[in-house]
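Narrative of activities, Objective 1.

The group set out to show that a structural description can be obtained from nothing but a protein's sequence at a throughput compatible with the screening campaign. Below is one input-output pair from the validation batch, recorded exactly as produced.
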Amino acid sequence: KQWYQRRVRGENHNPTTKDRQGNDSGPMYRSAIYCVDEDQLELAKKSADIYQKNLQDRGVTGEVTTEIKIEPVFYYAEDYHQQYLYKNPGGYCSMRGTGVKCTL
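Output recorded for this entry:
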């Protein structure tokens, strides 16, 4: 459960930008949390609510647009997309957080 709580935070990307991360846009860049059971779903929804309050408290405008639902059919990306920045240390990454910590 602690591992999951660390993973659902929005600190590493901006969950208020629908279908966008940095300069990249489109549905493949959406913020999403896919859960395997109702307990994870409840925790994910609570974390989004808490993070929304954290954002408002810090004066960040915008609503959390993260898609949160029970895991749909999931397909991994091609191998060359896996661990991209590990394989390409100087590679492009548009992921930028909001600068706001999630207090779970």
